[in-house]
Amino acid sequence: MTSSDPRPADAATRAVHAGRADLRRLGVHAPPLDLSTTYPFESLADAVGSLDAMMAGDDPTEAGGPVYSRLHAPTVARVEAALAALEGTEAAVAFASGMAAITAALLAARTADKTHVVGVRPIYGTTDRLLSSGLLGLDVTWTDAHGVAAALRPDTALVVVETPVNPTLEIVDLADVVAQAGGPDGGVPVMVDSTFATPVLQQPARHGVAMVMHSATKALGGHGDVLAGVVAGSAAWAARLRSVRILTGAVLHPLAAYLLHRGLPTLPLRVQRMQKTATALAARLAADARIGRVYHPSLVPDHPLVGPGRQMSGPGTMLSFEVLGADGTADTPAAFNAAGAFLGALRLATPAVSLGSTDTLAQHPAGLTQRVATSGGAVTAGLIRLSVGLEHPDDLWADLDAALAAASGEQGAASGG
Ligand SMILES: *Cc1c(COP(=O)(O)O)cnc(C)c1O
After folding, report:
1. C-beta 99 within 6 A of ligand 1
2. Which residue out of 124, 130, 353 has the highest number of ligand 1 atoms within 8 Å of its CB and is therefore the one to mutate?
3. Which of 100, 256, 263, 338 can pair with 96 through a Cys bridge, CB separation 3.0 to 4.6 Å?
4. 28 in any annotated domain
5. Domain boundary at 248, 266, 284, which?
6. 417 within a domain of the structure (yes/no)
7. 321 lines ligand 1 (CB under 6 A)
8. What is the extent of the structural domain holding 209?
9. Residue 151: pLDDT above 80?
10. Predicted pLDDT of residue 411
11. Are both 150 and 241 inside the same structural domain?
12. Which pLDDT does position 8 carry in this prediction?
């Protein structure tokens, strides 16, 4: 299926047809959902052939069938083909969650004599924690996007970076990180967490990134009902990732894979619409006196990495802004309280962590997602992160406006009483 899948140039067309090339031959219109855990074999020789194929990193369906679903699951393989087509890579490997995907990438890169990782901060809080914890037996050097070359060692197995950065939406220059790591051929491999960008806005493999990771729980799944992760890359990396997945068992359930695949045809439409609304809201927030800093790449004039033909084709669907406390500052207990009151007063946007869902999600990094990270940086007490959804921009603005009014009203009442 992977090889026979056509890859039209336009991403919107690929999103609709990827992973579905064989459906007409099968005589069905929706992808089949196969929940089997084990598979009958025609002959022992077939089963042995299957196992040999899997050990070589090949698709066992050409040989004697999947054998056992921890080894190979056809519904999962189908969405993997679709994700590889969107990312523009030879292959993709799906996992039970984004964290399972990151763990597998680290283990796939690690060898007996290469146990050092360069981590570029800031990075997703749990990734930061995983790397800092020593749980995987990896030695980590933390640096920023400009310090990668200096942090390399002879035993460096992988460079781990994330862009756009959470929750301040800075963009890391991936071509530069790959160059610092020694280039795409022969250098230290680079893995990027590309969750915030989605393959609609950024295809890191084009810039020499070896492994492109997503928490597919977010915009790829897109409807708040799938926990999943994926790593896209070359066939050689995919073979190593699959063997880690077989050994550690962090497989994606076929029903989750089915739901993930079901959401992909609308991914480009969703991302474009959310991005347009995020850009409009960022402009309104930036002009509002009740707000401190606003973070969205659209607010950086002529961003060198954002725009048609650049690393990110657009500014993205995520934005952050500071609710100010009664004292007019963004990093005091007053600002923390104002941010809490703001979240409590939202009627349309959902106060919740996660991102990329059809509805707008609002969360408080200082109180929630950044708590697990070891470095705070620009995360102030009043900072709110918004994952912009598909609601009408005017309705969303009315919700934000009313919640801001309520937050300052409560403060006024509190300080008056
Ligand atoms: C959510 C998220 C993860 C972790 O993914 P899970 O699916 O929750 O395991 C990793 N990186 C980023 C940027 C995320 O937003």
Report:
1. yes
2. 124
3. 100
4. yes
5. 266
6. no
7. no
8. 11-266
9. yes
10. 54
11. yes
12. 80
